[in-house]
Each structure stands twice: as structure tokens, then as C-alpha cells.
Design goal:
By secondary structure, the chain is mainly beta. The chain is built from four helices and twelve strands, in the order αβββββαβααββββββ. It has a seven-stranded antiparallel sheet with strand order 3-2-6-9-10-5-4. The chain has a three-stranded antiparallel sheet with strand order 1-11-12, with no helix packed on it. Strands 7-8 form a two-stranded antiparallel sheet. A hairpin with a 4-residue loop joins strand 4 and strand 5.
Length: about 190
């Protein structure tokens, strides 16, 4: 007697969870992604004065861990900015910005620029050694492992963040000592 084909087994599905429609909660996603070690950078830009006779322009800075190399030819990098953050708004209007790759001895800089409800950006730069980039006018932090000056090539909204792709205009590797500043499981770390 020929065999009757049996119906395929029903797919196994995870029970629905509170949170996003796809089933992962914000806390679960955050916990999983905290296991990915990331380098820490300071993204900077110069906000020009609103009017020629008004207050001077201002340096703006933001700590970021979502930063990566995209392409060698042309040299492109990507940074992820929270929608509506001051840096996101500034780079929407001003295409020139810079990145300083922070060293393990610059944890205080990363912490200062990551503060929520922070003080004026002018005060954040007060005692930090930096030079002004020739291509962008943005602050490049002294003692950083690498310094890049960039011009925005593309912006793409992705959920609650904007991905900004920048063409690297200059790249410097100063003679800074030490290893990179890392971010892992919600804390700044160093290699070793």
C-alpha cells in the first residue's frame, strides 16, 4: 500500500513578548548589543554664528560608539546619531565634521560628552586640548589615537537614529601612546 504523504510539521514560533511587534523588547535588544565591544570616538562640528553681528559660533561634540569604516575607495565612514540630537540637527545643516578616536586615557572626555541634560558645549571643551581642523574647522582632540575630518555624503533615517556617511577629507595618526578606549556591557573599558 502506498504511503500517504504526511503534512509538514507546524513551524515552531516563539511566544509573543512585550515590546516590538517582532517579539524582542528594548531591554532584550539593549542587553544583547551590550555584548558587542566598540571603540569610542568623539564626533565634533563647528556651529557657525546665526548672524554676523550675533554671538560667536560654537564647538559641538558628542560621544559615539556606533562608528565604522565603510569604504576605502572613496574613503567613507559612518556614524549613527540619535534623531533630534543636537549633533543630528547640526549635521543636517552643516556638512563638515570631525572624529577623534579616543585613547584609553581619555575616558573622562567620553563621559563628559555623553552626559544627558548637559551643560553648554562651550564649557564642555573648556579644559580639553584640541586643534581646529583645517578642512572642517571642527575640534580635533589632542592625544587621540586618530583624527579624521569628514564631509557628509549621505544621510539615512533608520528607526530612531540617522546614519551619516561621510567622505574622509583628512586622516591623521598622531603619536599618541596607549590603547583604544572601548565600550562593553554599559561601561568604558580598555584592552588587556
Amino acid at each position: 500500500m502506498p504511503k500517504t504523504p504526511s503534512a509538514p510539521p507546524a513551524p515552531i514560533t516563539a511566544p509573543p513578548r512585550a515590546g516590538h511587534a517582532e517579539g524582542v523588547s528594548n531591554d532584550e535588544f539593549r542587553a544583547a548589543m551590550s555584548r558587542l565591544a566598540a571603540g569610542v570616538v568623539l564626533v565634533t562640528a563647528f556651529e557657525p554664528p546665526l548672524a554676523p553681528d550675533g554671538p560667536k559660533g560654537e564647538d559641538v561634540g558628542m560621544t559615539a560608539t556606533a562608528f565604522l569604516s565603510v569604504s576605502l575607495d572613496p574613503p567613507l565612514v559612518l556614524v549613527s546619531l540619535r534623531n533630534g540630537a543636537r549633533m543630528d540637527d547640526l549635521l543636517d545643516e552643516q556638512p563638515l565634521w570631525a572624529v577623534s578616536v579616543l585613547s584609553e586615557s581619555q575616558r573622562h572626555i567620553a563621559g563628559r560628552f555623553a552626559m544627558k541634560g548637559r551643560i553648554s558645549d562651550r564649557l564642555l571643551f573648556e579644559d580639553i586640548p584640541y586643534v581646529r581642523g583645517e578642512a572642517t574647522g571642527a575640534a580635533l582632540v589632542g592625544g587621540a589615537l586618530a583624527q579624521l575630518e569628514c564631509r557628509t555624503e549621505q544621510r539615512m533615517v533608520a528607526g530612531d537614529h540617522t546614519l551619516v556617511v561621510g567622505r574622509v577629507l583628512t586622516a591623521r595618526v598622531p603619536s599618541a601612546e596607549g590603547g583604544p578606549l572601548m565600550y562593553f556591557r554599559g561601561r568604558y573599558r580598555q584592552l588587556g
